[in-house]
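User: Fold this one for me? It's PucR family transcriptional regulator.
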Amino acid sequence: MSLGEPLVELQAAPLGLDVPVRDVAILDPEDPPTAAPGELVLAIGARGRAALPALRAAGRAGAAAVAVKLDGPGQADALREAATDAGVALLSVRRETRWEHLDSLARAIIAGPDAPDAPGAPEPNAGDLFSLAQTVAVLTNGIVSIEDTSSRVLAYSRSSDSDEVDDLRRLSILGWQGPEPYLSKLREWGIFQHLRSSDTPIAVEPHPELGLRRRLAVGIRAGAQPLGTIWVQEGAQPLAPLAEQSLVGAARVAAAQLVRRRRELSADVRLTQTLLTGLLEGSTGPQSLATHLGLDLRRPATVLAYSAHTTDVLHRSDVTGLISVHTAARHRTALLAPIESRVYVLLPELPPGLPMTTVRDWAFEVVAAAREHLGVPLRAAIGSTVDGLAQVPDSRAQADRILDAMGRGGVDLDVAALIDVQAEVLVSEMLALLQERTGLRDPRLTALTAYDRRHGTRLAESVLAWLDALGEVRVAADALHIHPNTLRYRVRRAEQLTGIDLAQPQQRLLAMLQLRLPADE
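Assistant: Here's what I get for PucR family transcriptional regulator.
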């Protein structure tokens, strides 16, 4: 579990950093020092050396960690020694930090984003908002906090360098609310007025005399109703060029989370995901999703599909979060659904006549951002633009056909629509058919690949290279890095062994297809 800067600092971890935390316990100074296995013990009121009994009791009980406030720097050494002897982690808590906020944050992190909110939690659905804040930090190269309309902190991103954090950010997180002297300045500069009335980000220039670094802010709004604000503070490095665009998308994602939470978030999200997945798979009609979200059934729509080189990477929250934020920045009503090893984005209610190049650019932005910020290589396929939600399964099917072809190789593109890879898609599907139905294969070609496996030869590979080069021996030999005479010998030898006649167009055509199957077939 990570509570993050600047609330706590790790002073000792005698059992390492992987000790699981199962619960949070508040130890009142008037209570006897007790603990339970796996607990994070908040030693309230027991400052400095007064926390030594709590540390020893926590160690005897097998607690995970003890959090203590220090009166001075000299106390840390004695507490670290006691924590090491007791075999329990020691966290020092900043003196400005309010215990109830630390307790609420710890419980929210332990519960996770999908768990019901614990009593006293700082804000509904904190886990989702913390994940969103971290995604925005990655995309903007900044330090992020999400606040409600009263400037109370709902979630914030982690920062590895405390020197990058300015006074406003530090004091806001420590007190879980923006300090009034700073807030009055923001009101004086017209920042809050802009955030309440506009969907566009606004820049706040640096004020070193006030301890403020440059930052961007965007209002979180549901229609005309303000819900909160996302702040991005610039650290040691400048903000990313597309930081403002990322903020727009993040504000829309945050608005959906906050509004849906007020409508019983978990049930609402599950229903949306169920209806969306059913529509994409063709098992549910479009009317239910349209009614649930207020979508127009008859407006154009398209499906984007994303896949990665590994089958599990798209289930990581940072990747799906990145796709969600970037897509929401470009299309307000975009919907996202992970299905098996792919992530699908439904773009409903598209403007009539929206150019394919526009959607392609959106997909390129996601792929480039995933590579730059997360080091994840994504492929994206653009399904056909259909007349309404009823045809969405057709768009999804086309996107899948494209991704299937891209995954089998031979397509040197990160983003593709059917027009870009029509031939590759059709050949890929023919090969899939040959793989599935062995009766459609020429047994002589099957025997040739079997001969290569038994004898360690490369006859089938040489024949295919010669066919791909349209009979140009030197071109094919160069591709295989062999002498032209060696290639001529291999082609003749393949014909002699199998009885195939490569002078016949039909046999050449079948060979060009079948020899592309994996060698173990």
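One thing worth pointing out: The chain has four domains: 6-109, 124-259, 287-431, 436-514.
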